[in-house]
């Protein structure tokens, strides 16, 4: 995470809100969320890579991704290979300020298989972008809490990508 990145978080019942400031212009953050080539580089927690990611960023378009890990530790100290499929549909795109899409885990992952709706708003001030992330509704608070670490790790990777692109790496 760069020194300019700040994060705050709020959980309310079955909702998750994360506010994060990225040291990058809004257009670049928007592109990172909507361009599959950028998404492949950051979409997923640190211990995972995005594989077979596809995204058709238009209203009614679909996205799908496989989070792959060769050494995932589920907390028991045993590292294992893991593939978790996820996907959804784009519901609203107002470039470069608002993105709304559904999110679900696919059958067989062992994770809750219901749709949540993710709303992202982007505001730029002095070359930095404030991202307001909202995901709702989770079936349980435990399900919601399971996403907190994953999204924050994912946004750390987004921060790394934005830094690399901004500085020409």
Our estimate of the beta-strand percent is: over 45%
Give start-end ranges of low-pLDDT stretches.
none
Reading the helices and strands in chain order gives EEHHEEEEEEH
Tell me the distance between the termini.
16 Å
Biggest β-sheet: strands ordered side by side in the sheet: 1-2-8-7-6-5-4-3
Radius of gyration: 15 Å
Morphology call = globular
Please tally the helical runs, counting DSSP H or I stretches of 4 or more residues: 3
Percentage of helical residues?
10-25%
Describe the structure.
- This protein has 169 residues and is α+β, with helices and mostly antiparallel strands.
- The protein is 25% helix and 46% strand.
- It is built from three helices and eight strands.
- The protein has helices spanning 26-34, 36-42, 141-166, and strands at residues 6-12, 15-22, 49-55, 62-73, 79-94, 98-105, 116-125, 128-136.
- It has an eight-stranded antiparallel beta sheet with strand order 1-2-8-7-6-5-4-3.
- Helix 1 (26-34) packs across helix 2.
- The longest helix has 26 residues, at 141-166.
- The chain is globular, with a radius of gyration of 15 Å.
- The two termini are 16 Å apart.
Task: Explain the layout of strands and helices.
Elements: E1 6-12, E2 15-22, H1 26-34, H2 36-42, E3 49-55, E4 62-73, E5 79-94, E6 98-105, E7 116-125, E8 128-136, H3 141-166
Helix pairs in contact: 1-2
Descriptive labels:
single chain; alpha+beta; eight-stranded antiparallel sheet
